[in-house]
Amino acid sequence: PVADEGMEPVGFGHLFLTLVYGWNLFSVPLEPDRGDPGIHALFTDPQFKGPVTTLGPDGYEEVTEADGLHPLIGYWVLCGPDGGMEDTVEIPLSGSLPPTSTTAELPAGWSLVGPVADIEPPDETDDPAIADYFWKLDHLSTDQPFYNIVLPTEKLERGHGYWIYLKTPTSLPLGSTTAP
User: Fold this and answer.
1) What is d(CA 178, CA 161) in angstroms, rounded to the nearest whole number?
2) pLDDT tens digits along 80-99
3) Which residues, including other chains, have CB under 8 Å from residue 125's CB and lie 6 or more apart?
4) 3-state per-residue secondary structure call for the chain
5) How far apart are CA 51 and CA 42, in angstroms?
6) Is residue 75 very low, low, confident or very high in pLDDT (cuts 50, 70, 90)?
7) Exposed site from 49, 55, 97, 150, fewest CB < 10 Å?
């Protein structure tokens, strides 16, 4: 997943995405500027072992330059030790904050999502479409990732990606933002 620090603000609309060795399930809590280096420029260093992917209607899909990265969506990328990478790598992003109230339109079944702010995880009492807990990726070590539920006492964290299973399509609130 994203390192403990997650996304660190360094100014309005400027963030660092912190990734670790191994698989990372991440999200971006802002709409990246199109003037920034594209997704392929950000993730082409030898430490990245494959394309950035997300879950589409037909399974995993590679995120293309035309697709770009967007808030509310969870993404996968594999990082490895090539290229002199330490335990983490920081990727600078800049862009605009999403609207103050942000909702993802999700289909029934599994979805990969990411909040735009740290929030309490919604559950079936908030939305009857939610069939299960949110699931996150944790690491015992760089080569031993595992899934873990997000406990009701935990928060969904911006910069992290999460699995959620829905019984029916729904509009799922994933945080709100305010300009500093």
Assistant:
1) 21
2) 765 444 577 778 777 887 76
3) none
4) CEEEEEEEECCCCEEEEEEECEEEEECCCCEECCCCCCHHHHCCCCCECCCCEEEECCEEEECCCCCCCCCEECEEEEECCHHHCCCEEEEEEEEECCCCEEEEEECCEEEEEECCCCECCCCCCCCCCECCCCEEEEECCCCCEEEEECCCCCCECCCECEEEEECCCEEEEEEECCCC
5) 11
6) very high
7) 49
